[in-house]
Amino acid sequence: MAWGFPPSRSGGVYRALATARAFADDGWAVTVLTATRETFEKYTGSDPSLEELIDDRIDVVRVPFDWPALDTDIRQWSPVRAFLPRVWWQWRRRRDVKDFPEVGYGPWRRRLERAAASVHAARPVDLVVASANPNVDFMAADHLHRTQGVPYVMDYRDAWSLDVFNGREVHPRESRVGRLESALVTSATEVWFVNEPIHAWHAERYPDARERMHVVANGYDSDFAPHPRLESRERDAPLTFGYIGTVSAKVPISEFVDGWVRARSRSARLHGASAQIWGYLGFYAAPNPALLDVIESHADSGLSYAGPLPKQHVASVYETFDCLLLILGAGRYVTSGKVFEYLASALPIVSVHDPGNAVGRILAGYPLWFPVTDLSAESVARVLEAAAAAAREATPAERAACRDFARDYSRDRQLVPRVHRLREHVTGGGDPT
Fold it and tell me: The pTM is what?
């Protein structure tokens, strides 16, 4: 169960793709419940090329999804929405959370449950893996567990009751969400988290489920990861710094820009250098105007927005970079899927994020990692200059050490042990039915 499945362009789409394929590789018959293509095309942006990555052995069942709050066609609006927008929004919010406490996604619960029941009726399901967010995904698993006794895995791509940016509890244990999450965790066969800090927080919150909780980190997909570069480019060519991923309002893009302008203005190694931002600006199809303005207003400093990047083109774009920019929001629980792909490149990595960010646990030990000490312009400028020096002068041996460091972070190494363990749980070691 994964709302974010191709052609969704959300960050979790690669985890969902890899998880489904890992089960198929282990001999399971895999069906994925997800939203319709039109959902992503209309509301969040889509990458049609990602559908080519869906393994032929996997069946995809697309469940209709409506998102009235994001419907911009005023011809479809009711008179109440058009003339009394506050009244309409209050009504919409109450309706959204009637069946499930998640604004926007709550009404999808009943459709999901019916779709899950239909899949099970056609071919009995042995296991459900529900990958959130949105957290309504968990309800397909819950429905089959309650009605048919099917075991399930809760795959947290983020967190539900924890704000990973500020570390605060979002939903207390006694709240509606808190009670629901507690019941789901209690009944789950396994609960997966993407990093150790998030895992530890939940293990403390739900100590009775501690033994069933596991870190299943994101990783790079070997078929699409960049090829490690073991040689520096010619010394006279201007350097290219690159960022690939979604830029949200939580990302310190302005702080990066201030440091970039300072470093480029004073460093000979950065003479003529460029910094390219690839991906989406914000979580929706249209770029966030404020973020776009920050980038475009510094075009004379070599900064540019290159737009969304189809998955098939990612490796070739990495080939154009000399250094990688890892610009992330603050928070000790924040991690990033793209960091693993960055590691596979063997390029210098510049970390522009709070030093306490969870991604530091992953990058510690990477030979060409250049983290800021804080988000001041001077700190950012210094690491940019150091990375530029490494891009020119790092030896093949140093780059080979980066390549070797990355090997443990392939996505297969993260998923395969859990898939094998779940096979044992469901079948006792035999072939899945």
Answer: 0.80
